[in-house]
Specification:
CATH topology of the largest domain: TIM Barrel
Number of helices: 10
CATH superfamily of the largest domain: Metal-dependent hydrolases
Shape: globular
Largest sheet: 7 strands, mixed
Structural class: alpha/beta
Strand order of the largest sheet: 1-2-3-4-5-6-7
Bound molecules: adenosine monophosphate, zinc ion, fe (iii) ion
Strand content: 5-15%
CATH architecture of the largest domain: Alpha-Beta Barrel
Number of strands: 7
Mean pLDDT: 97
Number of domains: 2
Radius of gyration: 18 Å
CATH class of the largest domain: Alpha Beta
Distance between the termini: 17 Å
Length: 281
Amino acid sequence: MIDLHTHSNFSDGTDTPTLLLNKAMANGLTTIALTDHDTVAGWQEAMDHLRPGLALVLGSEISCQTSDGISVHMLGLLFDQENEALMNAMEQTRENRIGRMHKIVARLNKAGYEITIGEVEAQLSDGATLGRPHLADAMIAKGYMKSREEVFAQLLHNDSPFYVSHYSPTPEVAIALIKQAGGVAVIAHAMSSLRGRTVSPESFQSYVDAGLDGIEVYHRDHTLENRELLSAIADQFDLAKTGSSDYHGNGKLNQLAEFHTDPAEFEKLESRANARRVIRR
Ligand code: AMP
Ligand code: ZN
Ligand code: FE
Ligand code: FE
């Protein structure tokens, strides 16, 4: 089984890359992608702890924003981590996430929630990408709420007055950066209605022109209708169709391998990278 979208504690997942790989094997996965938000910081640990029987696809989930302010997540897989343009773009996003978190915390303070940036940072592992889930964890630690789901539903969702966006490239720029770094670009959970506004079916032409390689069709946040629509778009543009868990350890209900990718679709995707970069021991 192939799961092409997972998170570790190098972003807002709760498992270390090592634990993630162990669980992947225990769950019968044959291929797993590590796709932490806007970083490759977890790659080394994953490579160091990879064991025979599991193939590792290194990647990142790149935060993007369209010119009209819609948040999009672009999975970059199998790219060269030495590529400066892509690494610089990710670094800029990570830095911007810090100032953005200060703004969200200030808004919460104004509304009467007593929470400090230090308390948020205390929830973050060393070298990890800061995100709203860490703020949610801090709110939970203070007893305001019981789960990340609850904090997101009440306070931190994309349409909330506490929501602040951060710098991120447009989807087209992110795709171009991933392609220049030799990798493949797969748009993640494009029609998840849980994420506020989503991109229109018409916008895919522009992503394809930028070099899009695949669409994450099978994901728990997609309705059957969403999946059919995305599948039709993938057929129209001859893109690979992926399925994945978007596993976050205890940070979300998503279970490893709950959705997976057909081997033929993965082969199609991998063949579009500029080098063979799947890692096997
Ligand atoms: P950020 O990257 O700071 O914009 O935060 C977005 C991240 O929060 C997403 O990538 C998800 O992993 C996580 N997230 C969004 N909604 C929820 C939710 N309802 N429960 C838990 N985590 C969530
Ligand atoms: Zn996440
Ligand atoms: Fe995402
Ligand atoms: Fe994700």
